Structures are given as structure tokens and as C-alpha cells.
User: Fold this.
Amino acid sequence: MFNKRTRIKELLKSNSVDFETTVMGWVRTFRNNQFIAVNDGSTNNNLQIVVALGMLDDSTLKRITTGACIKATGKIIASLGKGQKVELTADSIEILGDSDAEKFPLQPKKHSLEFLREIAHLRFRTNTFGAIFRVRHSLAFAIHDFFNKKGFVYLHTPIITASDAEGAGEMFKVTTFPLDGTAPKSDDGSINFKDDFFGRSTNLTVSGQLEGELAAMAFSDIYTFGPTFRAENSNTTRHLAEFWMIEPEMAFSDLEDNMNLAEEFIKHIIKYALDNNREDLEFLSQRLEEEEKQKPQIERSEMGLLEKLDFVINNDFERITYTEAIEILKECSHNKKKKFQYIIDKWGIDLQSEHERYLVEKHFKKPVILTNYPKEIKAFYMRQNDDGKTVAAMDILAPGIGEIVGGSQREERLEKLTQRMNEMHIPTEELDWYLDTRRFGACPHAGFGLGFERIVQFVTGMGNIRDVIPFPRYPKSASF
Ligand code: ATP
Ligand code: MN
Assistant:
């Protein structure tokens, strides 16, 4: 067996000293031919390994370079130097993998996030990305923990689908047809998918919701957590072409139950990260503070990262209707002075991210749940309100990000649902399986979708969504 080692995180937090152990990891720095800072990814803190003078020959010393992988065996002792409680005095050092210092792109200095994105295969080995991806892991674990404790069933919805949940475009096609123009065509000139792999036109999923609803009509409460794909040409700091989404769907629930669950859920996973990733969050908080120093005073956040997360878990989210939001926006001085790119002048328009952020960051200064949107700007499956104009939708807006959750109570009344589908030109025959839930034992139900990367962004304080997923996919980019 090769792996008899102790994780650096365990060693650094244990209080005992004077015992033999083995560590393995990657060299961050090597000073004075004597002090190796080694990191194994279990924490951002390095273990200092002390090499006695004369212990290693020159050729081995030369191989201890930034990026090299080493195995060190020795004794853990109370550290003589500052900055760490314990260190390891090496009895033996073995080089597991060399790293040519001239060629290794990560030098022990500050690199820009843009540069690190180009070397995303190596950026895990930096403090910033070490912290981000350990937090991302914890949040994913907390999500399963939350729903599992509540008795939800984790449902795996298909990634290749024939349906489009929103009834809109923006999907990636899945086909084995050749791309050289020889794919079979129908009389009208369109591609005939009858002979394609699935015998029909298929896409990568944009949402697991419709399938989720089917299962909620059997298990009562389900959630999905998987990748979704959108071919939207959005070059923003909060859109990816491939992102992960969590979509709970609950039978016997209305819009208020939905909001309550979403709020409890968000607070739970943030609290989990605060309780379990303190060091990483402190590091990221520091990083953000440094970054914000580069910005003009008025663009800086009023709260530090940890303060903001504490604030979110300890305060109720603001809940207002779309109509109330429009009133606030219409009357605000920002709008009157025409400082929005899109001026708010009438009820019915879709809110842009600048409006969402104004409500959250300037007006309420806390997360906001917006409800009851005009039906024209929302999906066909949302439950129609009695006013004939709005639907029982809810979006949750977070400071610094904008929308993190989109959800609704679903239209469970067959007639109302098909009537809305007809109005929106959504073919009912193709969604006959979906309509079956309304034919056989329908009940009030609701659900929402949380963009995983958006909550990771929120918790880590990272400004660009491309930095919170290991290998981001976005327009003109799919490296690694
Ligand atoms: P937006 O207006 O921000 O584009 P949306 O209205 O298209 O969002 P929904 O279709 O409601 O979003 O999807 C549910 C959630 O998925 C959103 O609240 C958001 O958190 C996340 N999300 C949507 N599109 C993306 C994307 N391209 N990249 C990352 N996350 C996304
Ligand atoms: Mn979108």
C-alpha cells in the first residue's frame, strides 16, 4: 500500500507533537535549501518541512521546486519559527514528480484571475481556487444534507431531452447526423430526425423541472441536482453555457410554502459553509477586501464577506410583489435621473439585472423575494392568479449577483394550463405526458431552481461565475 500519509489539515490542527508521520503534497516554496512549504489541498495552510543541512545531496535539493510533488517522512515537532504551530523535521524526502521551475506557470506570486482562467488545469493549486472549490464541495454536500433530512427523494432527470421546459430556444442540439450537409431532409427542406440516433430531435436539458413534477406527483417531495445547458449568447459575469442547478419540487405546496423552503434552504447551506469552511471563507473575505481596495469608494461593498453571510442567515428576506417593485423603481431618483440603462416607465416590463441589483443593494440592502410577475414575461406552467394578469412566480435576488432562484407555484388546473399553452403556441401533444399529471390526481404544487454557481459566487464573493466552476463553458470557450 502506497498511501500511508496524514493530511496536512489534520496535522496542523492536532495538538500533539513528537510523533512520526508521512505527508505528501506539492511544493509551494523552498527557502534557503532548508524550508519547504508543502500543500496537499486539504487546507490553504502549508506544512513547513525542515530539511537538515547536509541531509540531501545537491541533485535532490535542485529537484525541490515550486510545483514538484514530494513525499516527506519525519517527526512533527512544535515549530521554532513564527507562523505555524508545528512543523515536520524530515528524515527522508522522496520526489514523486518533478516540476521544471522554468516552465511551471504558477510562480509564488500574485496572478490575475484572467491569467489563472487560461490555466484552469493548474489553478486548483492556488490559495484562491483551493478555497473556492473546497467551499463549492461543502455547499454541494450541504444541499444533499438539507433535502435528505427533510425526506426529499434525489431524482436524476435526463440530460438528453426532447422537451424544452421554457418552451423557448437556447438549446444545444444532440445528434449523430453528419455536419457536412448530407443529413436526411424532409420534403420541406428541414432535417428529418426519424433516422437520427433517437429517431427524433433531441437537446441537452435546460431544466429538469417538468420531469421533476412527474416524480413529485408520486414521492411528494423531490429535488434534482445536475448539470443544465443553455446556448444563450450571454457574455456576463453570471451566465455559463453549462451550469449546475438544484430544483426541488413539492406536492401540496403553494407559493408561500415555496418561498419559505427556498429561504430556509439558502440559509442552511450558507450556515453549513460558515460552520465548516471558516478558514477558507476568512481567506476569501480577505481576498475580496484587497480586490475592493482597487475600486472607487462608492462601488465598494458596505459589508465584508463574512459579515454579509452572517447578515443573510440572520435576517428575513424581504418579500414584495412585482407590482410593488415597479412602484419603487419608477419613483426612485436613480430612475428619474435616467441612471438606469433601461428606464422603468410602465407595469409589465421585464426587470433587468440593474433594477434587481438596485432593489437589493440600494433599496432594501438584503435579499429580496419578488412575487406575482406579469404572466407575459413568465413560463407557461406558472399558476395563474385570479387577477388574470399575474402568475404565482417568485424570484430571489441576492446582493452582488441578482437572480439566484427562479420558481413558482405550478398551474395544476388542466384547462387553465392547456389554454395558456395554446396562447403561447406550445404544442400540447408533445407535452402530453406532462399533462397526464394534471389528468390523474393533480394537486397544488410548487418548486424552484437555484443556480448552483450563483450561490457559490455569493458565498465565496467571487465576481465572475467563470471562477467558481472548475472548467467553465461560455461563448467561444470550452477548453480542457
Ligand atoms: P437570468 O435572468 O439570470 O438569465 P433565468 O431567468 O434565465 O436567469 P431560470 O430559467 O429561472 O433563470 O433558471 C433558474 C436559475 O438558474 C436562475 O435563477 C439562476 O440562478 C440559474 N441560471 C440561469 N441561467 C444561468 C446561466 N446561464 N448560468 C448560470 N446560472 C444560470
Ligand atoms: Mn437566462
Summary: The domain at 125-171+206-467 is CATH 3.30.930.10 (BirA Bifunctional Protein; domain 2). The longest strand covers residues 19-31. The chain has a mean pLDDT of 95. The CA atoms of residues 214 and 437 lie 6 Å apart.
